[in-house]
């Protein structure tokens, strides 16, 4: 894993992934080092090149449970990483449908865990990788579902604008993009990240983010809940020009999705290119953003246009 992540880091730094993200790795390294040096990190350790687990991670689940959006939700998607284990169990205890991605999307897409079909004493186990295999029901791209909340892990989050950094592999972005293309989520679906307070940063600039980066609306730490007042544009789908051939070749579900897009009439929608829409931001020049139209019966596929290289995302 370490060798793989080192290769990802080097590729991003030289722009091979389209990320040009050397600055991101400096922030990640700073957070990972701080958590290890101050014994904030929890197993599995070391936390480098992971969504880091941390002491009192279970307290973030209590913050999530108090959110009105969570209480109203029926379907909740949660990342499969260790620090969100208690969050996943909280979803089941609340009687909500839990949607969990297959780890690294290796063996499939998502699994659904229905709390009514799992013994209550097994909720904790059901939220582990082995438990998802035992109790989860795999779903396919054609599944008709509406996800009411997306919960993702992070390495660092900027509370001022909701910009986040994952561990650098882009799986949270791929999962989000696929759910958007399915029509399971919209731009208004709240995105929550559960992190330690030390993972809050102020040096993730919105102008350096790319179209596939997923910002968050709500941040839950062991001590507080933060609502981001200045929200950034969210991805509208999968940006195929940002995917390396190696990434596409290693993820079967992406290959299936791409094939469905290429056979659009058979899947019930027409892919078209649209020009980006110019939108003004206060006290700045107009910025460009991607736009897509999503509905229950037709999808508009947006091809990424390189508008971030000049102006970046629209800022608040």
From TrEMBL:
Membrane keyword on record: no
A GO MF term: RNA binding
Transmembrane portions of the chain: none
Keyword RNA-binding: yes
Pfam families attached to this UniProt entry: 5-FTHF_cyc-lig
Keywords: RNA-binding
Cellular component annotations (GO), alphabetically ordered: cytoplasm
InterPro entries: FTHF_cligase (IPR002698), FTHF_cligase-like_sf (IPR024185), NagB/RpiA_transferase-like (IPR037171)
Domain of life: Eukaryota
The protein's name: Methenyltetrahydrofolate synthase domain-containing protein
Species per Swiss-Prot/TrEMBL record: Effrenium voratum
